[in-house]
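Run log, item B.
One chain of 85 residues. Sequence copied directly from the ordering sheet:
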Amino acid sequence: MANGNDLTDAQKGVYKENDAALEEAEEHLRTAQQKAYARLKEVGIDGGDESCMRCGCPEYVATPHHPLANCPREFCGHSFASHHW
């Protein structure tokens, strides 16, 4: 992989477009998370930033990367590695 100085203008442009698109996606995710936390708080659930926003799973652990293995419990949609075991 070439370093940033060896890239063509077209390649640099693609990286710039990717950066802008990914930043926009991250902003949408941050907004969705803020709304989800606010909805939960409105109904008396305040688990903090590390709590599950989808199903309230008490064993949920926020992780940056979610392995493909799913939790075997029917009510839970989190990956197997996203739990305290």
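Observations after the first pass:
- The mean pLDDT is 79.
- The CA atoms of residues 54 and 77 lie 8 Å apart.
Flagged for discussion on Thursday.
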